[in-house]
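Cross-check.
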Amino acid sequence: MSRFRFPGKVAFWVLSIAFLFHLFLALNAGFVPDEAYYWTWTLQPSLSYFDHPPMIAWMLWLSTHLFGATHFGIRFPSLVISVVIGFFLYLMGKEILKDRWAGLWAVFLVTATLLFSAGAFLMTPDSIVILFFILTLFSFYRAIEFDSDRLMLLSGAWFGMGLLSKYTMVLLGPLLVLFLLIDDRGRRWFSRPSLWGAGMIAFLLFTPVIYWNSQHNWASFRFQWHHGMQSHQMAPLSGLSDYFGGQIGVVTPIIDLFILGAGIVAGVRLLRNPSRPMLYFWITSYPILLFFAYSSLKAKVEANWPVEGYLGAFLVTGALLVEWEERAWIRRTAYAGVGLGFFANLLVGLQIFWPVLPIASDVDPTGRMAGFGTETHEIQALEASIPQNLRPKAWLVDGYSNTSLLKIREYGRMPVYEIHPKRQFRTTTITEEQANSLVGKPVFLIQNGPSGGFFRGLDDRYGHPRFLGTIRILRKGSKDKIPILVQDVYLIPSFKNGLSEEPPPNIRAF
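Predicted model, tokenized:
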């Protein structure tokens, strides 16, 4: 990489090309369920939400008010954030590691990684938390380096906004404290008011989430703790192997091996000869990856959860790759790993629109994105087939994911509500007021089919349903003819409010 004479220009072009690629995907790929669900939060402004803190809802509210509830409007923040992340990785390599080529390696690694590529066009809390994570990293270190109280207070603000983005941001706090304890210059900050002021700023910014939870039986905190640490979905060793296998898949194999190898080498070196910048990036990254390895012994860890742990790791790996470039086999392997990552990104992007990989349509994670438009057409055609006097006034749907996707399709046309929810406090659930407004009117009832348990579990408490048919969406270009979506559709000619007949939800069972 040191062969590049102008690494900044190379980084600029890599990020520019990646941005255009992600822009194309953002404008043309269908929404995934989580994106649609987070968009529903903007319809019910709140201090926080059941699944996550509110920052994604606030960003989406602003973005969709500027650009509309469109693909671009919903995904605009993630597109911008992806460029900012690449810029700050290069900047931290240049300004903190004093090595522009290490920064360029970090740009290559983040751009070639499937996990970050997906977050560059899909709008999720991960896309936002990594923004405030990297801004905190940059401001905090610069505060110590330049002895700046202003930068320290700014880092507290960035940290607080990270807490408003995703709960995993909290992992960075103890690691920053640990760095201060280890570093000679860092320990002096414990006697300075600005460090405690930064913590107070972060806490104050997080108070809306605390207040919301206090008003909702601490549901979000308890759900996330159970979800990440107590839900024993698999045996410990199976969970650990699932975690490492998932990381190899989303980071791509060669890059993942380089990151792990660099972490081991750098860790051993730091024990012998501490380097402040390398220690800083190591201690704010690899412990996060290890924490989720530990968590995988207790519960299933989704592949995206450790995403913040890779930011510092990219810089540690980049710095070592500059040093290792003299070894031809390492240099060639690293280039091959980045090239494989770029190829994997192109292949996944193509898979969204045409199934080039031999994956069964019903398990292909890109399948639903490809069938978004077809599903819309089928649903609207079914609606048009109903006699005028029985045209529905709303959709009643099974599950928050299906509700969210249908709600964004029907936005501005017909209301969509989730009934019989598994969990409280989600924004998709029908309210008493909304249910009363539908009494006596025809409504559609839709469930994952065929013959799903959801329909049978409702009995007749919302009215007597009449089966209309089954929607089957096939994957365009797929040879297996396996539907990517099968849904049974019913018509309730006269809706009745059966909320009072619903069994009380068990709020302790997450």
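The first strand starts at residue 395 and ends at 397. The longest helix spans residues 328-353. Passed to J.P. for a second look.
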